[in-house]
Amino acid sequence: MKAGHLLWALLLMHSLWSIPTDGAIRNYYLGIQDMQWNYAPKGRNVITNQTLNNDTVASSFLKSGKNRIGSSYKKTVYKEYSDGTYTEEIAKPAWLGFLGPLLQAEVGDVILIHLKNFASRPYTIHPHGVFYEKDSEGSLYPDGSSGYLKADDSVPPGGSHVYNWSIPESHAPTEADPACLTWIYHSHVDAPRDIATGLIGPLITCKRGTLDGNSPPQRKDVDHNFFLLFSVIDENLSWHLDDNIATYCSDPASVDKEDGAFQDSNRMHAINGFVFGNLPELSMCAQKHVAWHLFGMGNEIDVHTAFFHGQMLSIRGHHTDVANIFPATFVTAEMVPQKSGTWLISCEVNSHLRSGMQAFYKVDSCSMDPPVDQLTGKVRQYFIQAHEIQWDYGPIGYDGRTGKSLREPGR
Ligand SMILES: [Cu+2]
């Protein structure tokens, strides 16, 4: 080993182990890997139960053709392994889609991410919601750092880096916060393109005593823990766009990458990378405590209103049934489902709902007795009929501001 390399290694070891912790040291072995991803593995619109041949909207995103990629894309994602040999992959729930594995820690803990890049471009891992120093930020920008402080900024193909993150009291959930806060991690060499390519995953930081000692740790305070990314994933930004055109379009030469209709066909209105109800079932028991960790990423189109049909959510101490999600916002919602059945989660933004941003969640009774009906109020009846009417948006007939008639042509 050259003297310079030895110095780097020593400085790196110093930076890794010098943070004192009274909590656990949580090691995660993450490999960055290429994969093929299908946004609609069931091959149909599950919400309307239509085949693609009978559904012009769904097929405009999902059917491949002469100059259309269709439902499958090459992506690059984070995968978790059991140790530093990166040979045994740790399974994750199917509903997580292409998201990376769940990372979790308590206040006082240190998270060590052993990242290895098996893909063909430089990538990193950059977290939200935890403490890190310059050697563990994972973001490439001109911050004046150099030497070993720069090694985290871009991990080349075949390279690796250990990122050291911690959860000091300054980053802890407050008394008024839920037991675990919702965060994410993602690659940040070119963040918009890295994330569109698939490099994003969930992270939670919890109050002390929330996680049990199992591997992986389970939360003691809730019965179910779900993570949903609402994002119009823009495959036009993916590093693999040219690859995907070459692989999936039957006449790649006919593709015009600047064509608006082609670009629209690659904007996948997804929840965890699934569209049109293809998200594998999110199952839970009635009367149990459910934590929903919701987050958004993307562009100005990524204004999402996630409506959980049939149940009530609690967000920041308020009851609601819709969660507001914007790019890089992280929402922790709690639910105690009251009624069993299959229920819809849909983004209420019209064009998003129409373009497939919907999924099902299933509440089973799990032999839990329903709560005793304690309603003591009145029964209030309303008799409502639907009518067709003629509606006039300007009944006074003139512009109230200018006084000019609304009826004259050209006004
Ligand atoms: Cu939306």
UniProtKB/TrEMBL annotation:
What organism is listed for this UniProt entry? Mus musculus (Mouse)
Lineage per the UniProt record: Eukaryota, Metazoa, Chordata, Craniata, Vertebrata
The cross-references to SUPFAM superfamilies, in alphabetical order and at most eight, read: Cupredoxins (SSF49503)
Annotated CDD domains? CuRO_1_ceruloplasmin, CuRO_2_ceruloplasmin
Which UniProt keyword terms apply here?
Disulfide bond, Glycoprotein, Metal-binding, Oxidoreductase, Repeat, Signal
Family assignment?
Belongs to the multicopper oxidase family.
**Could you state a single Gene Ontology molecular function term?**
copper ion binding
Plastocyanin-like domain residues are: 98-204
Q: What is this protein called?
A: Plastocyanin-like domain-containing protein
The secretion signal range is 1-18
